Amino acid sequence: ATAEVTLRIVYQPQAVFRIRPVNRCSATIAGHTEAVLAVSFSPDGRCLASGSGDTTVRFWDLSTQTPLYTCKGHKNWVLCIAWSPDGKHLVSGSKSGELILWDPKTGNQLGAPLT
């Protein structure tokens, strides 16, 4: 028997942040071919995940500032990404409303996209 799990994902704006101007760029990492629309640091701070208008999710090694994986699976812009608290999974959401779960250690997609 297969058990089905249903997750409720609710979006609610919760705060307004005032961001002070940045006068200089401390580092850049080239890779995405379109605008970067979402970024998130792993819970341990060693990895950065980014989502882009090029429909990919990328994992970056921050100690070497090099790409680890380019993950393809979305059919539209990647607008949001979030790490699991233990850092073992990353979920990305696209403009078309689908969610994809990724394994940050391999860059592989876990299961089928959720719509």
From TrEMBL:
One of its GO terms (biological process) is ribosomal large subunit assembly. The keyword Repeat applies. SUPFAM superfamilies: WD40 repeat-like (SSF50978). Keywords: Nucleus, Repeat, WD repeat. One of its GO terms (cellular component) is nucleolus. This is Uncharacterized protein. It is found in: Nucleus. Gene3D superfamilies: YVTN repeat-like/Quinoprotein amine dehydrogenase (2.130.10.10). It comes from Aegilops tauschii subsp. strangulata (Goatgrass). Pfam families: WD40.
